[in-house]
Amino acid sequence: MKNRIFQHPVRARLPLLGLFLATALAALALSLATGSVSIPFPELWRLLWHDDGSVHARILHELRLPRALSAFSIGALLGTAGVLMQVLLRNPLADPYVLGVSGGAAAAVLGAMLAGLPLAWHTPIAFAGALASILLLFALAHRGSWNAARLLLTGIVLAAGWSALIGFILSLAPGRQLPGMLFWLMGDLSDVLDPLLPGVVLAASLAFALALAPALNLATRGTLRAHALGVEMRTLRIRIYLLASLLTATAVSLAGAIGFVGLVAPHMVRLMAGSDHRLLLPATALAGGTLLLLADTAARTLVAPMQLPVGVLTALLGVPLFLYLLNRGRGGEP
Fold it and tell me: pLDDT by residue (tens digit) across 44-70?
């Protein structure tokens, strides 16, 4: 039985990974070319490799390229976190935003902002908030009967609790800080111009998650079956706790509470590529990055020169999909 699980025909679906990669590159090109100043695609290609000091080159290299790479990396972080949480809860509706993990990280960062702590502290503080939220979720849901519906409902209530705490923090914030905190909270990529941190965290986390892929495949089949096939579920859960918290915390500390990317991207990929995590993880990272990249492009161009919070656009897409999945009653195994 174990051999049959690991002989899933991943190679037959590898062209889909190429499709996701091509879509991501197309979205990147669109993002770099589009804005208040349009850059023709032939000129864009030339400027990518040769900075001639022109206005277009400065716009590309100093503004659009760093922001686009950051948006892609953050979207990939959220998509990967969504996959891991769906394994942890064995529920396709699990998502860092829906279950309050993003809310815990956001509340921690807003508290740090209110206290005037340095920017370098935001990511570790967000990690602590995200991890605390996951542990609290499981501690509350573990009382009595533990099932997918109970976990989901507990997560939704926990998210509401974090929202109340966030509202309390905002009510204490001085007037000069409040607009920036509110805009950040809705998801803001305007100040994220260094893709190094999210890129490094994404590469390291994705490599670690891929090493866990065989165990994740077994975990989705049930705790007893996975344990019988040699998976140490307690150790696996701890690793998923920490990894999902790190991914969520990095994204939230940089760009605020951007919702539903971790729900939409994994679901979309599963429909096309199946549930083998050896393919699902990299494909979801590409899909999540592409989704947030397109949303950010729309956020800065739809009502230009004004910029919309990118979290508003992802929520407009994610809320209808969440309600659709919930009404279909597919709250069981992913």
Answer: 989 988 888 889 999 999 999 999 999
Map out the domains of the chain with their CATH numbers.
15-327 (1.10.3470.10)
Phi, psi of 107 (to 5 degrees): -60, -40
Q: In whole angstroms, what separates CA 131 from the centre of its chain?
A: 15
Residue 5: pLDDT band with limits 50, 70, 90: very low
d(CA 68, CA 27): 9
CA pair distance 292, 75, nearest whole angstrom: 5
Q: Please determine, for residue 82, whether its predicted confidence score (pLDDT) is greater than 50.
A: yes
How far apart are the C-alpha atoms of 11 and 271, rounded to whole Å?
17
What spatial distance separates the first Cα and last Cα of the chain, rounded to whole Å?
20
User: Which amino acid, one-letter code, is at 54?
Assistant: S
Lookup: tokens for 296: 């950010």
Burial of 111 (0-12, 13-18, 19+ CB in 10 A): middle
Burial zone of 4 (CB within 10 Å; 0-12 exposed, 13-18 middle, 19+ buried): exposed
Give, to the nearest 10 degrees, the angle between helix 101-115 and helix 233-255: 50
Question: What is the spatial distance between Cα 227 and Cα 173, in angstroms, rounded to a whole number?
Answer: 49
- Vertex 224, ends 247 and 265: CA angle to 5°? 30
- Calculate the alpha carbon distances from 186 to 30, 102, 153, 311 in Å: 24, 12, 23, 5
> How far apart, in whole angstroms, are the C-alpha atoms of residue 73 and residue 45?
21
Residue 214, pLDDT > 80, answer yes
Residue at 1: amino acid letter: M
Is 318 within 8 Å of 192 (Cβ atoms)?
A: no
Model confidence, pTM: 0.88
Q: What is the DSSP string of 155-187?
A: HHHHHHHHHHHHHHHHHHS-TTTHHHHHHHHTT
Phi, psi (deg, nearest 5) at residue 118: -65, 155
Burial of 219 (0-12, 13-18, 19+ CB in 10 A): buried
CA distance 82 to 260: 9
